[in-house]
Amino acid sequence: MLTVTELVQLLMAFTGSMGFAILFHIGRKSLLPAALGGALAWLVYLAVIHAGKGYMIASFLGAVFCGLWSELWARKLRQPATVFLISAVIPLIPGNALYQTMNSLVTGEMHAAWKWGIATVLTMVFVAMGTSFVAAVFIMKERISDKRRTQDSGRQS
User: Per the record, what is one GO cellular component (predicted)?
Assistant: First the structure.
């Protein structure tokens, strides 16, 4: 069961994703799927954290969800997947870790800056890996489908 804090986090993930979707002018019919993708990605993140896994795995699986969500909605609404992906991935950006990194640098706490900086970079790497993994799978699927169509049309000639 979700706590009140987590419900507020989901609402904020939805709102933040919606804000970026509006900022990027993605189109009225795509706003809700883009914002809902961000909230659901955060829900995946929270579920993985609740399962006792680390925030890196949670970020990766949240990003995998973002990739799948984006690819499916892109096909449904006939738009590029990035229309949905960029807005949906916003809640997974490690804003607090980036803030702590910069704050530690400004205050001269180099050990803390390194710790937070590494956490920030690793989280972003895992988010990038999650979205790239899904994109690669969909690209391979399309290439296989194209190859089959080409072979089938060659046989009919």
Answer: plasma membrane
Structure tokens at 48: 């993985």
Angle, in degrees to the nearest 10, between helices 55-77 and 81-89: 150
The residues near 36 (Cβ < 8 Å, ≥ 6 apart) are 14, 17
Q: DSSP character for 79?
A: S
Three-state DSSP at 83 gives helix
Instruction: Answer whether 104's CB lies under 8 Å from 116's CB.
Output: yes
The residue length of the chain stands at 157
Where in the chain are the domains? 4-92+123-156
Angle, alpha carbons 120-2-66 (nearest 5°): 45
Distance of CA 58 to the CA centre of its chain: 11
Model confidence pLDDT, tens digit, residues 90-134: 999 999 999 999 999 999 999 999 999 999 999 999 999 999 999
Q: Taking the complete model, does pTM exceed 0.85, yes or no?
A: yes
